[in-house]
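Regression test case RT-17, inverse folding.

Input:
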């Protein structure tokens, strides 16, 4: 799988990661299902995984699924709490899930970012966090996200990026490039909405195998995107998603076709 540098950190990351929203909130009895997804994704070269306290049991399930792979995994998770004490409580639990360290700790949807960044910076300085980030899914919040980006305290942002959600391309991606910030692309499949329509013959004739490959390669054709994080409950889908990172760039005419049929 191809890699890209996470902004100014200088660290190379495989371009297809693994999200856990909705698919890893599982009871103990279903842990083997998550194990199989992680095994398939890592078998295809995936190393970046993303979760959040917002996702129910997903962090605990992901941590168990990584198991002996923690040394090779790049773990991103989030602080999602209105109060510092609650956020710090989440963080202590996360350290237990993920072997005593978090690679990328993000303020989820900018909730309480002014209050959380100081203690997050202390954790980074203490070596329990490598990098800091911020996320948001709504374009209406991008002005505030730009403010956080410009303050020099974070290393990466996470925003939606797919043919139906391209608002980040107007403001967030150019600013991230200017500031040397990594970009994590959430919702490359528009939360599955773009996978439910028939796959056009024109895209198959262009050499694409289906919507997952087309959308991931569309997403990653923008070099400002560091890593895309599709979520899946299927080991087969995880393996196919990972394979899209082997040669992600699409020619301009194919990009336009994907945009046309995804509209």
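Golden output:
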């Amino acid at each position: 799988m191809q890699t890209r540098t996470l902004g100014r950190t200088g660290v190379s990351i495989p371009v297809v990661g693994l999200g856990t929203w909705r698919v890893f909130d599982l009871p103990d009895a279903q842990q083997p299902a998550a194990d199989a997804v992680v095994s398939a994704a890592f078998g295809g070269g995936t190393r970046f995984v993303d979760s959040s306290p917002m996702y129910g049991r997903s962090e605990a399930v992901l941590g168990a699924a990584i198991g002996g792979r923690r040394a090779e995994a790049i773990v991103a998770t989030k602080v999602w709490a209105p109060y510092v004490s609650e956020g710090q409580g989440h963080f202590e639990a996360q350290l237990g899930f993920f072997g005593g360290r978090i690679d990328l700790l993000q303020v989820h949807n900018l909730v309480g970012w002014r209050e959380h960044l100081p203690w997050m910076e202390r954790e980074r300085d203490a070596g329990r966090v490598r990098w800091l980030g911020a996320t948001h899914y709504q374009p209406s919040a991008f002005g505030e996200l730009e403010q956080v980006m410009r303050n020099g305290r974070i290393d990466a942002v996470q925003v939606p990026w797919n043919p139906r959600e391209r608002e980040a391309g107007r403001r967030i991606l150019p600013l991230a490039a200017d500031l040397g910030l990594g970009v994590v692309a959430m919702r490359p499949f528009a939360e599955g909405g773009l996978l439910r329509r028939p796959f056009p013959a024109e895209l198959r004739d262009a050499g694409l195998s289906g919507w997952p490959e087309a959308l991931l390669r569309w997403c990653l054709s923008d070099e400002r995107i560091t890593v895309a994080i599709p979520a899946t409950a299927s080991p087969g889908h995880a393996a196919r998603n990972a394979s899209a990172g082997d040669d992600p760039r699409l020619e301009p005419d194919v990009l336009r076709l994907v945009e046309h049929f995804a509209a």
